[in-house]
Every structure is written in C-alpha cells, then in structure tokens.
Specification:
Chain lengths: 194, 260
C-alpha cells in the first residue's frame, strides 16, 4: 500500500518533522512515500527544517512530492530533499526561495553544478522550470496520473528502493566503488535465478 | 559449509575461511560475556587450525552489535571490570593472528564497534551506523574505542566519537577511512567472505607475517617496526610457499600455497 503524507499549513517545523519521521517509519514495504499538501511558508525553525531535510535524504524509501499551488522557502527545501517532484499546473514558487536553508547544496546535488549556479545567479530564473529541465521535477497537467505510472514502476521488485540506494551510493562513493556497490544487486539476482 | 551452533554465536566454514556470526537479534546482538568469550574461543581455535587461513566476523545483514549489555556493565566495580572475562575476550579477539574481515550492518556501537575496528578490514552495509556512545553513560570506551578510530580515520573523527558520542553512517565512515568498502546491507556477509577468501588464497604464512608486521605500527618505533618487518620477510624466504610463489610467477601459472 502506498504511504502518503499531507502537509498542513498550520503545523510547526517540529510537528512537520515528527509527522515525516512517522510516515517514513510506517512506509514499511510501500514503494514510495508521497508528500502532498501545503508547501507554503518560510523556514521558521531552522533546526527542525535541517533535521527534516536530513530525514528525507537518509530515507531508504523513495520520496516523491506531489505539489500544487504556492511553494515557499520551507517547501522548496523539502521538495529538493525528496527524490522527485511532480508539479501540478498551478505549482509556483513564492517568496525568496534562494534563502531556503540548504537549497543551494541540495540544488547542486540534485541538478548538478551548472543548473545550481544558474539557479543561484541568473538574473531572472524560474527554478521550477530549471528543475523540470534537469529531470528532477515533472510538470504535469494530470499529476495523479504521472504519480500512478511512477509508482507502478517503483513497485516492480522493489525497483524504486534499489534505484534510490544505487543513486545514494553514486553520490557518496567514488565511481568504481559505486559500480561495485551496484554489481551486488545483480549478483543477488543471478543467485536467485539459479 | 558445516554450521556449528552455540548460544548466540554461530560458526561456519567456507573454504579456508571461518565465519563467526553473532546471533542475538532480539537484543540487536548486544555483547555479553558469554558471546565475547565464545567469539574469543572460536578465534583462538581458528588460530591453531592449519586449515583456516582467514576469518569473517559479522552480526548478519541487520545489526552487527548495539554494544555491550548495559546491565552487565553496570554490575561492575572498577576492580571487577579489570579482571572481567569481557575485557579478556576483547583482548583475545584483537590478538587473532590470522587476517580477519568484519562484515558490519546496522548498529555497530560501543563494544561492537571496538570489536569491528579491531579487525583488519571492515566491510560495511549501506545501513551501518558506527559510534561510541559510552560518553553519554558517564563512562568511556574500554576496549579500544578511544584508539582504534584514530588509526583508521584520524584524530578528528576519534575525538568526535569519543568526546561527543557522534554516530557516523556507512557513507561518512567510508569517506573518513573508517571502513574499507560499502555494499548493500543484504550482501555484507558475502562481500566480506569474498574478501576473506581472496586473502585466504594468498600464502597463509605471508598473510600472518604481513599482519604481524602491520601490528607493529604504534607499538614499536618506525625503526624497530622496519627491523621487525625485515626479520619477518627474511623468515618467509625459507618457506615452501615463497619457493612456490616465485616458481609460479616464472612459470606463468597460479601458485598453490600450502602454508609451509
């Protein structure tokens, strides 16, 4: 069963952190955690925000944000800490998203140095367009349909979780070691086929 | 493979490699005197066994060990701890003469971390977490936790671990050199066994000599360690394995080492 979490506009940073922690714990065998609801607002509690970002980065289950409406600095950071964003037609950034703590580090990690620099320094830029161009986000007329297709792919033999682990290894390890890491999954498949 | 079962510790053989598994999942493989003594006894026996060339120490793919049983620790007085079987067992695990690879997944904390770091190589699962939380209990590590991090990762990580009780995940552990490889957690025992088998395929006397030479670091001055290395090297020149190694190289074939 797919694990979902609806963010509420009125919750504090600590409450949000607690709810995300619980949702990740309860994700069990869910192919993904889907976070939707309110992405508005500034970062009021920097510590809770940083801890929440770390929670999402360390999550072993793929995290997808399903966003419609305004995205404030806090939501912008959470979106980048997830693995992929599906943006509805009315999703848009509001406020000074460049000030979202961790935004630049995450943008560079997610989209590479060139897009991150463009996001940081280009005079007029739509970050959601850049994120869509980079492949990190998908702008969709029917976000639910895109999510459904994505989850179906993730669910196949735990592929989503495996891909997430491989991507983590690729971002944390030198190339040869990341390849060795990935080869173990193939090893295991070969063994079970025998 | 011939599994032998004892309470909370299992052993099995794969080729010339002994695999010792801590098996107390309901307590996250917490170490008590019985477990430590059993591990020490298995390793001492393996040291004497001419058919074992290397070992793997693991807790399986979920947790290596969450540390020592707190109630065992709290029952000790200053005098009783110094003469405890715990302390003796930690010492004899660290004294194992043959190469040993730790296969670490999940929690690797306190005494568990000290046991893992006393191994020659550490293979970590991607879910591994290393730490010395003793400082949070008003004590300090007592089996190498204030020394072994420094050897592998340097003074900074050592201080973070011993003074702050800071935990380090598998990725950071690899980055700072605390572990030698990161693999998917479910494959950690296989990966460590593969490494141990590769070591076991080398000349066993040379492997033991290399380990003895490496151990001299920090115990002897550099000059003494180099002299020690030279003595060990000279001793190997008279072995059949050294003869076989050079002959095989010249004849362009794989050597067949016998440990003689």
């Amino acid at each position: 069963m797919l694990q979902r979490l609806e963010l509420s506009a009125g919750e504090t940073g600590a409450e949000r952190q607690g709810r995300i922690r619980r949702a990740l714990r309860e994700a069990g065998r869910s192919p993904a955690l889907v976070i939707s609801g309110s992405f508005e607002g500034d970062v009021a509690d920097a510590r809770a925000h940083a801890d929440t970002v770390n929670l999402l980065i360390d999550a072993t289950v793929p995290v997808v944000t399903l966003i419609s409406g305004p995205i404030g600095p806090q939501g912008f950071g959470l979106m980048l800490a997830a693995d992929h964003a599906i943006l509805g037609p009315d999703a848009r950034v509001v406020g000074n998203w460049r000030r979202a703590s961790g935004a630049m580090a995450l943008a560079r990690n997610r989209c590479g140095p060139l897009l991150a620099h463009r996001m940081a320094f280009a005079p007029s830029v739509d970050p959601l367009m850049l994120l869509s161009d980079s492949g990190f986000a998908t702008r969709a007329a029917d976000p639910a349909l895109v999510l459904e297709e994505m989850i179906a792919r993730f669910a196949e033999n735990g592929l989503g979780r495996r891909l997430k682990r491989s991507l983590r290894a690729a971002s944390e390890l030198p190339l040869k070691e990341a390849l060795s890491f990935d080869f173990w999954f193939t090893h295991a498949q070969d063994d079970s086929a025998r | 493979m011939s599994p032998r079962d004892h309470s909370f510790v299992r052993t099995e053989r794969t080729g010339a490699v002994l695999i010792v598994t801590i098996d107390r999942p309901e307590a996250r493989n917490a170490l008590n005197p019985a477990i430590l003594t059993r591990i020490a006894a298995e390793l001492e026996a393996a040291d004497r066994d001419d058919e074992i060339f290397a070992a793997v120490l693991t807790g399986g793919p979920v947790n290596f060990s969450a540390g020592a049983d707190i109630d065992v620790l709290s029952g000790h007085s200053p005098a009783s701890y110094l003469s405890s079987p715990n302390r003796r067992a930690f010492e004899s695990i660290a004294r194992f003469d043959k190469p040993i690879v730790a296969a670490v997944a999940g929690f690797c904390l306190g005494g568990g971390c000290e046991v893992a770091l006393s191994c020659d190589l550490v293979v970590a699962g991607d879910n591994a977490v290393f730490g010395q939380p003793e400082i949070n209990l008003g004590i300090i590590p007592g089996a190498g936790g204030t020394q072994l991090w420094r050897q592998r990762a340097g003074a900074g990580p050592q201080a973070e671990a011993a003074l702050l009780g800071q935990f380090v995940d598998a990725w950071a552990a690899r980055r700072i050199g605390l572990v030698d490889a990161v693999v998917p957690a479910e494959n950690v025992v296989d990966a460590a066994t593969e490494k141990a088998l590769a070591i076991a395929a080398k000349a066993p006397l040379a492997s033991r000599a290399a380990k003895a030479a490496m151990r001299a670091a920090g115990v002897m001055s550099l000059q003494a360690a180099l002299a020690h290395e030279l003595t060990l090297m000279a001793g190997l020149l008279g072995t059949q394995d050294a003869q076989e190694g050079t002959n095989a190289f010249l004849e362009k074939r794989r050597p067949q080492f016998q440990g003689r």
